[in-house]
Amino acid sequence: MKKSLLTSLLLFVVVFGLAQENLLEENKWSREEAHKWYAQQGWITGANFVPSTAINQLEMWQEETFDPKTMDRELGFAESIGFNTMRVYLHSLAYKADPKGFKKRMDTYLGIANKHGIKTLFVIFDDVWQKKPKVGKQQEPVPGTHNSGWVQDPGDPAHKEKKNFAALEVYVKDILKTFANDDRVLMWDLYNEPGNEGKRNTTLPLLKSVFTWAREVNPSQPITAGLWAWDLQELNAFQALNSDILTYHDYADEKHHQHIINLLKSHGRPMICTEYMARTNNSRFANILPVLKKENIGAINWGLVDGKSNTKYAWSTPIKDGAEPVEWFHDVFRKDGTPYRQDEVDLIKKLNSEK
After folding, report:
1. Based on the number of CB atoms within 10 Å of its own CB, is 55 exposed (0-12), middle (13-18) or buried (19 or more)?
2. R_g of the chain computed on alpha carbons
3. For 290-339, what is each residue's pLDDT tens digit?
4. Are 68 and 108 within 8 A, CB to CB?
5. What family does this chain come from, according to its entry (predicted)?
6. What is the pTM of this model?
7. Residue 346's Cα: distance from chain center in Å?
8. What does the alpha-carbon distance between residue 158 and residue 315 come to, in Å, rounded to a whole number?
9. How far apart are CA 119 and CA 52, in angstroms?
10. For the residues of 195-248, what is the DSSP string, one character each?
11. CATH 2.60.120.470 applies to domain 36-353
12. In which region does residue 69 sit, left (phi positive, over 0), alpha (psi from -120 to 50) or beta (all else)?
């Protein structure tokens, strides 16, 4: 383990101890409740899902580009290898433009996923990629560029402007109340990678607010916000201390990943890795998925089907002519349902079939 990482992890443990008195205790699940719920799920495996026809969350959820036919086909690919969970990003602007239609489309999606034996982990807010989301027609993909059209929610500086919080509270509470007792919803991931794109602790007020709003609704499903950057100690401590189920991201090799698991075990809660699998970083199904199976940690990789998000290309190494990368970064299937690598889907099916 690199010294900088070890230092960050030790600081995280210190902040963890100092922050215990600041918990939002009301309606938080006890460790016993969390373990009881987790034991009822079976091993959670799946992918982060956006249909191949959508470049981002808005294109996925806006009425004009909502594509249930593609969702049905591609969730069928997931079912065929034993995946039982999809992590799916929502977007507050799609809701604001059409609240009733947005919730109806969520229900349609959940019906399709349920038909394929798949539960959904919905993501509410997101600090990653483009800072100024706009409703309407979305941009075309930049050839060979990873997630060239993905947008933040609510954006930057929108995430830190208190004038936006009242409308965001309406959105969060309406969505949670609508689906609070829907057993097709596995969990609520309240904020993806808070503090990313240089935002750091400017995200903390909104992060605290969304947890408060969720606790006030008190859905039947657990709530979480995944750890992802070990130098963000204050954010990490808040996320870990306020999540019912501990979730995290790791895109490194199995040695690093095991270190993270060993540290997070100290919280005494069930765990789900909600992002992993970046082949050219040596985070692969072959070396990570067996570790997660052995540790009984949920495994949700980035990417299901190669599409407009272009996540088969690595984060910082675009291929300007859009040529096929030598090795895909993310994703499991081509658009026609052919596996990118047959040995990978064979391993996934094997591990998913084991009791």
Report:
1. buried
2. 19
3. 999 999 999 999 999 999 999 999 999 999 999 999 999 999 999 999 99
4. yes
5. Belongs to the glycosyl hydrolase 5 (cellulase A) family.
6. 0.94
7. 24
8. 25
9. 19
10. TTTTTGGGGHHHHHHHHHHHHHH--SS-EE--B--TT-HHHHHHHHHH-SSEEE
11. no
12. alpha
Structure-token pair, residue 189: 């991931």
Which tens digit of pLDDT belongs to each residue from 84-104? 999 999 999 999 999 999 999
**CA 204 vs CA 191, 193, 207, 219, 324: distances in Å:** 11, 11, 5, 22, 39
Residues forming a β-bridge with 355: none
Task: Break the chain down into helix, strand, coil percent, rounded to 5.
Answer: 45, 15, 40
Give the residue among 192, 198, 197, 181 at the shortest CA–CA distance from 227. 192
Nearest to 316 by CA among 144, 76, 107, 194: 144
Q: Kindly report the CA angle at 131 between 8 and 193, in degrees rounded to 5? A: 30
**Six token digits for residue 206:** 């909104």
Torsion, Cα of 166, 170, 171, 177 (10° steps): 150
The whole-angstrom separation of Cα 159 and Cα 127 is: 8
Helix axes 165-178, 99-115, angle to 10 degrees: 40
> Within 13 Å of residue 239, how many CA atoms lie on the same side as its CB?
30
Domain limits of the chain?
A: 36-353
